[in-house]
Amino acid sequence: MNALLRVACVVLSLTAAAPAVAETAGYPTDKNPKFMFDYPGDWELKRGEDDGDFLTLNGPAGVLVQLRFVPANQSERTEAAASTVTYLKGNYTEVSLVGESEFGSPGPAGSMLVGSGLDSERVPVVFAAYLLPLPSGDSAYMSLVANTDDKTGKDAAGAVMQSIRAP
Question: Which of 72, 76, 89, 130 shows the greatest Cβ crowding within 10 Å of its Cβ?
Fold first, then answer.
């Protein structure tokens, strides 16, 4: 499957109907959130230790979603995109990425980076990273890694993305 077709599959799966969500959380904390989101109740949520650290969601079939806040300046957005590429190329093999582009309809406005690769066990995975605008001008950052054939996990991650909102 070529890279463009994989990208289309990731984007379509993230805007498709997704499983119902059972939990609501805020980043970085529920008490003082910069943004809110919903996630499936059977997913594990782990918060970073310091302000600015990633909040991680792990799905039961292995989908990994990470969230964090990105301030409203271009250097922070550029750093978020660059660190994502560095992480993917350092932790996966045969990485193929389609550069940052603008979202179209349907879905929230923002920028995205999508691609595919192989995990440490040579299982095909898809990647996506999004910078989703918040009313403040800042962005919510969300990235995901999922097995290519994990439709349920990708759909649930899409529901998380669609639920990101201001507190």
Answer: 130
